[in-house]
Specification:
heterodimer; A: about 600 residues; alpha/beta; Rossmann fold; Alpha-Beta Plaits; six-stranded mixed beta sheet; 19 helices; about 35% helix; B: about 375 residues; mainly alpha; abc type-2 transporter like fold; four-stranded mixed beta sheet; about 70% helix; elongated
């Protein structure tokens, strides 16, 4: 109460849940924080850090187990309704009524919040203008794109003027363009209306725009402060290394990330590798490791500080931090018939229509053996449809499709036998044990007897899996390992990965890509879809799709050049530039016709 | 040699799928319970609950004659053990009340001149007022009364020239339980297999595991067989449970060949699984699969002849029953069980069953891959 400028004050806050394995765990553990009014505040942290739990407590939807929580000067445990009357809260999946139009949704939420008729006209107009939805007021909400739905959700949340706006991961599952628009709206609100906003996010570039940042990991608050203050943590330890000619950046990155005693983090970016070294470690060793790769200091970013914090917390949790999250697989699959130039995937004039809707329009590309090929695009761009056709889940309307030397139209089962598939959501049998899942899929791929036993044993060891554990209650990271183990069990030529890194924390993502790099090196071809644009840097080549058409196809470097700017530009901006160029072209064409 | 190896390979893949299906059913505690519980409970419920036999008729008497003749007639009624007098009325005003309240199923009115007419050898009318709200029980009760009165007339001498001697074949006492229970061997297990099969693919679609299954080299045919076999097995186990209850608990004698009974059940169950898997392949999620199954089960049972004879239905519905595997399943089981029919006697039942199976099973296999997501 004494701090009039604070919107949220928490003291020793704690909330526990019963996990899927039946044990209690603390989703929020002894958290104390003060959120200042009138500015943008970010809660950042990997999935499962406790951001949503904290936000739901702030919105009065969950009761804390211990500690005190005041929002807008009101004790939440005593009078949650008084708080709810003054805040607006947008959950991760906002409850839009899909059959109602944009306008009807707005009106409905205005009715629910008792917004006086007199204020509505002005408020609606402003919301529709800000979200650029004025053109679509009659369209049913269910027929909007993912990004537009999210914007409508925000508009519905803001039908009244709250004293505090709380947004739970508003940019999850939203393509880069809509993400940018969404943030424009939020920043506009903060600047023009002096609104206090609390937003949770997993994107560091979003946190960078906030006045105050709270970093969470596994229920605990690791750090807090202004982005500049947090950034200073990483001062002097951030570098960029340039790989030698003909070496993909990801291989240099792998070399760096394999030395956790020297290197905190490394990611490929713009053809180089950005890395953070451990302070005070031997200069000589670093020089030795990077003997063929010149490196230079670079300015530190919030992301660097974040990765340092996470790595630090991880080191504390697992005393022996030297071991990588999983061992690089020893895949001996490659039956090297030397035909390295022979493409393993040939796509020619691939078309898929759903009724009148052209989901994929005349797409052609080839993928060579051992290549990592990325499919990128906004939601609904056709990348999932293309992906599903490639792995034989969806028949093509027309066109030629060849996978591992087999025509996918005539020799489907044979072609499928040569590919592995890891889906976005955990898609193995939850009530079977790890071993039973592996044995079943091994059997389905035609492994049996000794060969099956040997492969299952090897996979269990390689991915460090407990064979008798029930698959459905494994922690997320282990579920993904099991999915990978299953996809690789029959030693496929090609591995298909659908959004493999969504929902896992940055450290696990690094480890995951480390496995992928090793797989590609051993000759397995990787086809991957992702919405993390920076992950395109791991790929040899990428295809960017929008509205069913391939807009760009080539190495990340070529794609960046096509986007028009210098090669230092990050993938996210390149993506936005390319999609916008094509949309502008289409509009002028449409206008001329 | 190569075809042999291919066949063996295919067989092993199918067995892997069958093993997985059975594991998923057996590892789920509720799945295990569903295997035996419902069949057991429903068989007992139907056995005791679903009977048309009249064993307790509450009735009231309005006897205005109060003579020896009326007393004797009433004594005969009471002596059956089926008729229980709940009230003796003193005025005709009370009749309506007895029927309306449901206290009595029928009221027997004996006029005051009953005795005099009897003695003078004239026709003496007897009034029976029935509660027609339940027409079949009322009909049965009135038939009972008529036969008792007929027997009474006969005892008075003047024996009628023709007597009907009834011999009900296959069910000597014409117990409706005998009629219904064998049909349950088919009907109850169908409910379960239909549901199990309908949920099997829908569950996988909902949980995302079906995609993972579709990217394996398993062909639609192999998936179909692998999915069908466990459901068929469960269906036959349930049929066996009900069969044993009927045979040993309710002691309805079995006249036919067990082998033929099981051949019929197998064909019937395969067809049911075909319908279930087709539902499953169409449904997007488990909720839809359940809804479709429930929508289908009612007409399947109504048009099966389980409770009401098919030949009593309007012609158009009789035609519709040809598409109903349950009708032929029940007919086969009843005829084999009760009358000991041989294969040639029930062979005609297999034709529609095989036709329905031959349509639904390939349809399901085709839908696995071609259902638009």
């Amino acid at each position: 109460m004494n701090d009039a400028a604070a919107t949220v004050v928490a003291q020793g806050l704690r909330k526990t849940f019963v996990g899927p394995d039946g044990n209690r765990f603390a989703a929020i553990d002894d958290v104390s924080l003060t959120v200042r009014a009138g500015e943008l505040t970010a809660l950042v942290g990997p999935d499962g850090a406790g951001k949503t739990t904290l936000i739901r407590m702030m919105a009065g939807l969950l009761k804390p187990d211990a500690g005190s929580l005041q929002v807008l000067g009101i004790d939440l445990t005593r009078d949650p309704q008084a708080v709810q009357d003054r805040i607006s809260y947008m959950p991760q999946r906002f409850g839009l009524y899909e059959d109602l139009s944009v306008q009807e949704n707005l009106t409905l939420y205005a009715d629910l919040h008792g917004v006086p008729q007199a204020e509505r006209r002005e408020r609606f107009a402003r919301m529709l203008e800000m979200t650029d939805l004025a053109r679509f007021t009659e369209r049913p909400a269910g027929k909007l794109s993912g990004g537009m739905k999210q914007k409508l959700g925000l508009a519905c949340t803001l039908v009244r003027s709250p004293d505090l706006l709380i947004l739970d991961e508003p940019s999850v599952g939203v393509d880069p363009l809509s993400r940018r628009d969404l943030w424009k709206i939020v920043q506009q609100l903060v600047h023009e209306e002096k609104l206090s906003v609390i937003v949770s996010t997993a994107y560091m570039d979003e946190a960078e725009r906030c006045g105050q940042v709270f970093v969470f990991n596994r229920g605990r608050m690791l750090a807090d402060g202004a982005p500049a203050k947090l950034r200073a943590w990483a001062h002097g330890v951030t570098f960029t290394a340039r790989p030698p000619e003909a070496m993909p950046a990801r291989e240099l990155q792998a070399r760096l990330i394999d030395r956790p005693e020297l290197i905190i983090d490394a990611v490929p970016s713009g053809g180089s590798v950005r890395f953070i070294r451990r302070a005070g470690e031997d200069e000589k060793q670093l020089n030795e490791m990077l003997h063929d790769a010149p490196f230079a200091p670079r300015p530190e970013e919030l992301e660097d500080a974040f990765m340092m914090l996470l790595r630090q917390a991880e080191d504390k949790d697992t005393k022996a931090a030297a071991k990588p999250a999983y061992e690089a697989p020893r895949v001996a699959a490659v039956s090297s018939n030397g035909a390295n130039c022979q493409p393993v995937i040939v796509v020619r004039d691939l078309v898929r229509k759903f009724g009148d809707f052209m989901a994929v329009a005349s797409t052609s590309f080839e993928v060579a053996r051992g290549e990592i090929f990325g499919l990128l695009g906004p939601n609904g761009a056709g990348k999932t449809t293309t992906f599903r056709m490639l792995c034989g889940l969806l028949p093509a309307t027309s066109g030629h499709l060849e996978v591992a030397g087999r025509n996918l139209r005539t020799a489907r089962a044979e072609a499928r036998g040569r590919i592995g598939y890891v889906s976005q959501k955990f898609a193995l049998y939850g009530n079977l044990s790890v071993r039973e899942n592996l044995e079943f899929f091994g059997g389905a791929y035609g492994l049996r007897g000794k060969a099956l036993k040997a492969r299952v044993a090897a996979s269990l060891e390689q991915f460090d899996l407990e064979p008798s554990a029930q698959s459905g209650i494994l922690p997320a990271g282990y579920k993904q390992r099991l999915a990978m183990a299953t996809g690789l069990l029959h030693e496929p030529d090609i591995l298909f990965l659908d959004e493999p890194t969504s929902g896992i924390d940055p450290l696990a993502r690094r480890a995951f890509w480390r496995t992928i790099t090793a797989l590609a090196k051993s000759g397995v071809t990787i086809i991957v879809t992702t919405h993390f644009m920076e992950e395109a840097e791991y790929c040899d080549r990428i295809a960017i799709q929008d509205a069913g058409k391939v807009l760009a196809l080539g190495t990340p470097h070529q794609v960046r050049e096509q986007a028009g700017a210098a090669s230092v530009m990050d993938m996210n901006s390149a993506f936005i530039a390319i999609v916008e160029q094509s949309r502008a072209q289409r509009e002028t064409k449409g206008g001329a016709a | 040699m190569k075809t042999m190896r291919n066949f063996l390979d295919s067989l092993m893949k199918i067995m892997a799928l069958v093993r997985k299906e059975l594991l998923t059913i057996l590892k789920d505690p509720s799945g295990r319970a569903l295997l035996i519980g419902p069949a057991l409970i429903q068989a007992l419920l139907y056995g005791y609950g679903a009977t048309y036999d009249l064993t307790n008729v509450p009735y009231a008497v309005h006897d205005q004659s109060r003579g020896a003749a009326s007393t004797e007639l009433l004594a005969r009624l009471d002596g059956t053990g089926v008729f229980h007098r709940v009230a003796t009325l003193t005025s005709s005003d009370q009749i309506a009340g007895m029927i309306d309240s449901g206290d009595a199923l029928l009221v027997i009115g004996i006029p005051s001149d009953f005795e005099t007419l009897r003695v003078s050898g004239q026709q003496a009318p007897l009034q029976v007022i029935l509660d027609g709200r339940n027409s079949s029980t009322a009909g049965l009760a009135s038939a009972y009364v008529s036969s008792i009165v007929a027997a009474y007339n006969q005892s008075l001498g003047g024996a009628p020239s023709v007597t009907i001697v009834r011999r009900a074949w296959f069910n000597a006492n014409l117990e409706s339980r005998w009629n219904i229970m064998p049909g349950l061997i088919a009907a109850l297990s169908m409910l379960q297999t239909l549901m199990l099969a309908a949920l099997s693919v829908a569950r996988e679609r909902e949980q995302g595991t079906f995609d993972q299954l579709l990217v394996t080299p398993l062909t639609p045919l192999q998936i179909l067989i692998g999915k069908a076999l466990p459901s068929i097995l469960v269906g036959l186990i349930q049929s066996t449970i009900i069969f044993l209850i009927i045979l040993f608990w309710f002691q309805i004698p079995m006249n036919g060949s067990v082998w033929l009974l099981y051949l019929g059940l197998l064909t019937f169950t395969v067809t049911s699984v075909g319908i279930g898997l087709s539902i499953s392949a169409v449904a997007l999620n488990m909720q839809q699969a359940m809804l479709y199954t429930f929508m289908l089960i009612m007409p399947l049972i109504l048009l099966s002849g389980l409770l009401t004879p098919v030949r009593n239905m309007p012609e158009i519905l009789q035609v519709a029953t040809y598409a109903n595997p349950l009708r032929f399943g029940i007919d086969t089981v009843r005829r084999v069980y009760l009358e000991g029919a041989g294969f040639s006697d029930v062979a005609y039942n297999f034709i529609p069953l095989v036709i329905v199976g031959a349509i639904t099973l390939p349809l399901a296999a085709w839908l696995f891959r071609n259902r638009l997501a």
